[in-house]
Amino acid sequence: MKNKGFTTRLVHSDRTLNKPVDGSVHSPTSNSVLFEYQDVNDLVDVFQGRKVGHVYSRSSSSSNTALQNQLSDIEGGIGAITFSTGMAAISSALFALLKQNDHIVVSRYLFGNTRSFMDTLCNLGIDVSFVDVTNVNDVAQALKPNTRVVFSETIANPVTQVADLEAIGNLCAEKNVIFMVDSTMTPGYVFDAKRVQASMTVCSLTKYIAGHGSVLGGALIDTGCYDWSSYPNIFELYKTGDSSQWGLTQVRKKGLRDLGATLAPDAASEIAIGLETLALRMDRCCQNALRLATYLHGHDKVENVYYPGLADHPQHFIARELFNGNYGGIFSLDLADGVDVHAFLNQLKTVITATHLGDTRTLGLPVASTIFYESGAQQRAEMGIGDKMIRFSVGIEDIDDIVADFEQAFQSLK
Ligand SMILES: *Cc1c(COP(=O)(O)O)cnc(C)c1O
Questions:
Q1: Taking the model in full, what pTM does it have?
Q2: Are residues 257 and 392 in the same domain?
Q3: In terms of residue numbers, what domain contains 201?
Q4: Into how many domains does the chain fold?
Q5: What DSSP letter does each residue of 161-206 carry, written as one string?
């Protein structure tokens, strides 16, 4: 299947990668917590890393392994770990790979919950520098001898800043620093993490990958680009076998096992079903977002539209290079003076007011008063978030219906 297209590979991957024994085309959901060994020596070998196998489903189970194989395959990675949520993937990975007094360089434009976690790391004795990832010089200037990780999203939400991922990847490769990329906004189908030399990608499976707003999950994928044999924080115990696997082993052991944020097997199976239509949904969401953002750009009730697909977006050309002609399914706007944010949202009928993104449905959310409320006015200003901002996650509906919904909402406010 190696040379086949993305969706062809994906819809056949359960059969070809995971090979269910009874010929089923989906890997069966296995809810067993425990695993029997006929020979105790085999159990000991699995515990001590000499053999591959499951011992307790907090650490691994066949339903999770099946999904991990598929996720790693679509990114051309060397392995993946699944978690109960995207936040679990991010926090488990960083807890497992960092030590007190390490330094990390992190995007200033972050998903609010990730920002909150970075503040927690600061409180625990990790030195964190927040930088403007649209400018590689800002990243370069922040690096210190004890910098272990550079962490960035691809397209930030809500203002849609696009990180200069190629330049940051070059910098990290040169300095031998882990480059961890949150690719939630641009899953494997639109973004090739290896092209920018990302060491690992993390993502929320809850969003585009599962897609239907019915299940939570997260993942970490090792692209194989980073040389773990030189990473100073790998525990001696995990320096066995192929060094390319050391990072994954440590995150599995210290992250997944210690913190225990395991993806439930039922959830893994449900996510695998959603994953099959990722490319179809992604194409549709991105086309719809471009159409809607273009309609709103220049509308007299709208002050600004933030969408990388618009030619006046500051990183439009970088986005065009990085995301295969797509610009993502998220955009934000500032309503014009005199148009009330809450009144406008209440007039939308098909668009749902909800916090979430990457769904099949179009969702709208006032930003400053909800997801970035806890950040306070100063941090919001630093992130470019104003009081009149609404974030939209564009779904797969027939876009004429969504444009008409916006039009009637604007009309009703006259
Ligand atoms: C939603 C999201 C997360 C967290 O994922 P959950 O599954 O909700 O925990 C992390 N990063 C980004 C960019 C997200 O949008």
A1: 0.96
A2: no
A3: 6-30+61-275
A4: 2
A5: -B--HHHHHHHHHHHT-EEEEE-TTS-TTT--GGGGT-SEEEEETT
